[in-house]
Amino acid sequence: MDFIELAKKRFSCRKFKTDKVEQEKIDLILEAGYVAPTAVNRQPHKILVLTDKSKLALLKDCTKYDFDAPLCFIICTDKDNAYSRGYDGKNSAEIDAAIVTTHMMLEAQDIGLGTTWVMAFNPVKVRELFNIPQELEIVALLPTGYPADDAVISPLHSKFKDTKEIVSYNEF
Prior knowledge:
Blueprint: H1 3-9, H2 23-34, E1 45-50, H3 53-58, E2 71-77, H4 93-110, E3 114-115, H5 123-129, E4 137-145, H6 163-166
Antiparallel strand pairs: 1-2, 2-4, 3-4
Helix pairs in contact: 2-4
């Protein structure tokens, strides 16, 4: 699939079929995250894969946006093991995790799965319920699965600012 076509087709899926996602597809999504670029190739991210129904049910205590997905990735990052820019100390950990998560979402779309990037969650609860080490920052939940036949694309999905509001050449 053409990349722009893939990027345009991907949407935040908020309703999933109950079908389990095959391990081969989980592995492909993880590989996409694995090969994602990170600053100085530090790879500070850690990913927890939830496939067990009892573990997935715990998400309901952390967010109302679990969408009953049959699979969820919890993407974390370790700021202490990420690159920090020497000029001002800007740490790349969250950016690296965002790149990894984006790669995973696009791979999921390419193999027929839907995802939603969830940032609205209680990080204290997620850490507690899934035993996430203190040194890791929890960046995103990524509910994943086969989109339900009646999954609806948000009307905001195809609304974009005019490029003149976003893009400048040579100076602002």
